[in-house]
């Protein structure tokens, strides 16, 4: 028996933003291991499609519409899961959006949406679920979606990069808070490198500047050409969570390169600089 089967062979897994991309990958993986998966998404159609696909393969899944930018909806989700299913073994705070454009070109509405979904969705997911987990007193796992971008910079992706820096620091602090309580709740920072997902396929809002499409297209093509298979990357995340690791990344060499670059920047205190690959992308 693998450690993933030992730790995640039963119980309930809740995944936000599970209607596509990495969230969908998590939902499929946990279902394959034998968990009941609560597939949440802002789109009912996407959530029901993923839950239906899991069910068609013999797995157990329930679709729910949840807008993580609204704290009360995460409160509702947590209450529903514990009232109906009696517990939550795994919580994956995954929901997030990408936003492209210079800081001054992005509308206030798009800024608010990006920060509310990418940051507040994770904060309030933890805030809503942890009291129930503490009361249950059972071993549980929380995975918060950071990014390799949590340690880097990229112009025109400022909103997204900023949100992932915030998520990383939040997750580190949360780890220490739960460690001090002595509760059997494991916290992991999920760090995708470059996975083949749909995040750059199209803006899910009309609030991005029109010229952002060129940047999206370049990132989408790069991801398609060089990205890791989604299910392979998610399998890495799940294995590392099962092993109790805080750092759960998909491509360790990419993570190390990003960290080394960040460390050098902080030690030298030089002005921010674009990596050569990024300069080529933006030219």
Automatic annotation (TrEMBL):
Gene Ontology MF terms in the entry: oxidoreductase activity
Keywords: Oxidoreductase
The keyword Hydrolase is annotated on this UniProt entry: no
InterPro entries attached to this UniProt entry: NAD(P)-bd_dom_sf (IPR036291), SDR_fam (IPR002347)
SUPFAM superfamilies per UniProt: NAD(P)-binding Rossmann-fold domains
Family listed: Belongs to the short-chain dehydrogenases/reductases (SDR) family.
Protein name (Swiss-Prot/TrEMBL): Short-chain dehydrogenase
Source organism (scientific name): Sphingomonas jatrophae
